[in-house]
Write a structure and sequence with these properties.
Number of strands of chain A: 4
Largest sheet of chain B: 5 strands, mixed
Distance between the termini of chain A: 15 Å
Strand content of chain A: 15-25%
Oligomer: heterodimer
Structural class of chain A: alpha/beta
Strand content of chain B: 5-15%
Shape of chain B: globular
Number of helices of chain A: 4
CATH topology of chain A: Rossmann fold
Number of strands of chain B: 5
Structural class of chain B: alpha/beta
Shape of chain A: globular
Largest sheet of chain A: 4 strands, parallel
Order of helices and strands of chain B: HEEHEHEEHHHHHH
Radius of gyration of chain B: 20 Å
Number of helices of chain B: 9
Helix content of chain A: 25-40%
């Protein structure tokens, strides 16, 4: 299999994106987007967690291993955490995870970190659509190299 | 003969400690020594071949050593940061270890070669060393040698990797990590890996596949390096222990760089300084968050 970066031309392929969201802000924000009938790409699977600091980097690694093409991690804006300081701690971990994933060769656009509050249904729509579009552009996780992700 | 041997002899004969963990000459170069009798103290040596981080043996999981009794450990400045790490994380009590810190002028990258120190032979971790005379010690021994030469190899390799495209980097790491045989020697050699049960061995849920497939190897090293972020003391024992010569120093070196850039933290030899993931600042960088 070739090692060249080829844009994904298979138009039937749609990216699979996993979103790890906090119960108090982003999940409520996503709910608002839904009840407001905002149109969003249907590629995102939402996983609700108590707080963005519940997101273990292993969740993201596992998601990619099991066939996700992109990941969204989202929680309350800093200062708004239901547990006061959870997202401050999460932010530190995500910063290093963000850097390390890039250093290991995962494209930056595959992992989106966002703060979405309960009233930001519009922002959630934007995050979902933009992430899906960017991952669509990148193609399936592992496709060009023939060995990235997926079952081996 | 020298200060180190005298101190070790005194500590053993007056019963302050039961074992001195240090370096001795073995048939295949320098190796770790566990000196339990005062008359054996003259076996102890310290020179540029003393690369190993002996703080690893303070790990309370290593019962074959802890059962010898109270230990004194010979450390270089960089290793003193690992001792500070295990004290900070409440693995040992400060009062239960005697730290024999050696003033250090750098060590070799490949101790088996026993060549003079120069910019090619000195360990990459000695570059711009700030702890040649550590602050954490009970005895500070030896004369302060001149500053070591600077080996810029790792800095250049990391910079070269950063210049690559993501898929080139991905292929680079695929090539390196496909050789991993999952012996976990990197973990066993590490002074800061002391969990009773490693996440890599958990089966419910199984986070990391124990077989040595490329995908599992990648997950394992990503997890190991993330767990070391902000705790790693950059002793590079993981890389030295690796039978497949995977350049783990690049991974830990890159993460250490990121931690310093983002949180202004470098591994400290003061146990009271909190590790960067135990604390936060409200104005931490969040340029990567939307």
């Amino acid at each position: 299999m070739s090692n060249e970066e080829v844009p994904c031309t298979d138009i039937t392929w749609a990216p699979r994106v996993v979103a790890f969201v906090c119960n108090w802000c982003t999940y409520t924000g996503a709910d608002l987007a839904g009840t407001s009938r905002l149109k969003m790409d249907p590629n995102v699977r939402v996983i609700k967690l108590p707080c963005s600091s519940r997101v273990n980097p292993l969740f993201i690694i596992k998601a990619f291993e099991r066939g996700a093409d992109g990941v969204i991690v989202s929680g309350c804006h800093t200062g708004d955490c239901h547990y006061s300081t959870g997202n401050y701690h999460a932010r530190r971990r995500f910063a290093i995870l963000h850097d390390l994933l890039q250093f290991m060769g995962v494209e930056e656009d595959r992992v989106t970190f966002a703060w979405v509050s309960a009233s930001e249904g519009n922002k959630w729509q934007q995050v979902v659509n933009e992430t899906t579009a960017r991952v669509q552009q990148l193609g399936p996780f592992g496709a060009p190299q023939g060995q990235k992700g997926g079952a081996q | 003969m020298n200060e180190l041997q005298e101190t070790a002899r005194k500590l053993l004969s007056d019963g302050t400690v039961n074992v001195v963990i240090g370096y001795e000459s073995g048939p295949r170069g320098v190796r770790a020594a566990f000196i339990t009798a005062p008359e054996q103290a003259d076996k102890l040596i310290f020179d540029t071949r003393c690369v190993q981080n002996l703080a690893t043996y303070l790990n309370p999981r290593r019962t074959q050593i802890t059962r010898l009794g109270k230990a004194a450990v010979v450390v270089k400045g960089c290793d003193a940061r690992a001792v500070a790490g295990v004290i900070r994380e409440k693995q040992i009590e400060r009062a239960n270890v005697v730290i024999l810190a050696m003033r250090c002028g750098g060590v070799l990258q490949h101790p088996e070669s026993d060549t003079p120190l120069n910019a090619d032979t000195v360990s990459v971790r000695c570059a711009n060393c700030k702890v040649r005379e550590p602050k954490l010690f009970d005895y500070l021994l030896g004369e302060l040698p001149p500053e070591p030469p600077v080996n810029t190899l790792r800095i250049e390799q990391i910079a070269a990797l950063e210049k690559m495209t993501p898929s080139e980097r991905w292929n680079f790491w695929s090539g390196q990590l496909s050789r991993c045989i999952r012996c976990h020697a990197c973990r066993e050699a590490c002074p800061m890996c002391f969990c009773v049960k490693c996440t890599a061995e958990k089966s419910q849920p199984q986070w990391i596949d124990p077989s040595s497939t490329l995908q599992a190897n990648r997950a394992w090293q990503t997890m190991r390096v993330l767990h070391q972020a902000g705790r790693c003391v950059d002793c590079l024992e993981c890389e030295r222990a690796c039978p497949e010569h995977i350049p783990l120093s690049l991974l830990v070196g890159y993460v250490a760089e990121a931690v310093e850039r983002r949180f202004d933290y470098v591994a400290s030899d003061d146990p009271s300084v909190p590790a960067p993931f135990g604390v936060y600042r409200t104005d931490d960088d969040e340029e990567f968050i939307r």
